[in-house]
Amino acid sequence: MAYALRRFFFSSLSLWAAVAVFGVYFVTHLHNYLSFGIDLVGGMYITLDVHMEKVLDMELSDRVIALLKTLPSQSCSGTHHAEDFVPREQGLAQKNYRVVFNNEEIATIVANCSDIRDHRLNVVKEGATLLFSLPATEVNRLTREAVVSNIQVLRSRIDQFGVGEVTIAAHGDHQIIVELPQVQDVQRAKNIIGKAALLEIKPVLAEGMTSEAITGRFKDGLPDGIEIIASRARPHAPYLLVPRRADLTGKLLKTARANPRGGEFQTEPVVELVFTSAGGDKLYQMTSQGPRPRLAIIVDGVAVTDADVKKPPLEGTMIYLTGAFTIESAQELAQLLKSGAFAAPVSFAEDRTIGPTLGAESVYRGLMACLVGVALLGVFSIFFYRFAGFLAFIVLLFNLLCILYAMWLLGATLTLPGIAGMVLTLGMAIDSSVLIYERIREELRHGMPLSAAVQAGFSGALTVILDANITTFLAAVVLYYIGVGPIQGFAVTMMVGILSTLLTGYVLLKSLFLYSIEGLGMRTISI
What we know:
- There is one protein chain.
- The chain contains 15 helices and 20 strands.
- With 527 residues, the protein is an alpha+beta fold.
- The strands form five sheets. The chain has a seven-stranded mixed β-sheet with strand order 10-12-11-17-16-9-13. A four-stranded antiparallel β-sheet has the order 7-8-2-19. Strands 3-4-6-5 form a four-stranded antiparallel β-sheet, covered by helices on one side.
- The model has no long low-confidence stretch (mean pLDDT 77).
């Protein structure tokens, strides 16, 4: 029986010994296995504001225009003719869409039309004028969807440009947090993140040297539905007059690629845009209107190129962007367009750069705090519990090793708050050992044999240990789900540390005790 026990404990401890041997290599090559946060290795911390004004205006405009196209339906036309429902005037006006009909009777009929509910619109009637707006529930839903969509676009962009493993998360209702560790080119990273990359293709209605020159052509100012944009395509015409709405946008873009040798009849780098079949149909329609229609290729509200189309493309799926591109700028623009445009524009609310020197200092101080904490816990446990304290210290080192193993397997990022969570977890691990040892002391004072006292000590303290650790684990789960960035790093380390404490503090420590008693034949252990 004693021989079988010795073999069992020897095989169990051999497994832990193998873990320790690999642990030495793992710790010395930790940078190859673990990802470090920007507070440890340096990088950028960015907060983006998501601006919903233009998105909500476009959504409201689309819904009202779609509603007006359905008029008159049987539910709201009555005995009136279709031409009675044609608005005399319409357009956006201070977060409302204003529609003016010829008389108040028609406005009343439209305001009571059931189709308004189908389009999820609020309406206020003022004589012959109807003011349409989006309900608050729709505004909140569109905002949430825009933030989620922007996060997906950011992930796609950053993955393609290879700026490292990043943290991207929503913060509040209108903000996004981005953490970029080990960024070498800060300005390039900001360009990648900050550009909306909204592609629009519109017909050019007029051009001019100044916006005032274009506006002066209209007696009563610019009519509704058109706007003036800047252009960098032609030096003699830096401003263009185009429609406000674009029928062909990046949503219909199939792919974009940089061509360093240029396209047809081109020698400089260009960006090739390939559209879907639906986009190709729209492109054909736009280029087949008039003898030589002129199109402006607009990215983020600025015309990067424009061209007179001599003949409509038969396939209608590809066009070229020219504009004094370098190979690098052409590739960057192609990648941005391919990753998709933001659902809503963003701006930088905050950006902080942490240098590698500060990161290295954080690593040094964090590791020193961890090592000093472990050393003090070791001195405490050995001073008060002698040999049993030495065993607790060995278990403590395995606990730290298991935490690092688990973070590697989970792909978690180690941050400075994560190191703080590790130190706190180690203190809790010693607390568990203290509970067990005090229970063993109590059983020994009652005259119980050492082996039975150890069994009783571990069994009796288990309930208290589980209760304390489960409570802390649940608190860490809450922190993880409501926190962002460093708070989540702290919570992950806490959760992993608690599970590791239960594994090493109960299984390994008990195995060491029983091996000392049954395997090595020790009759007394100083506790």
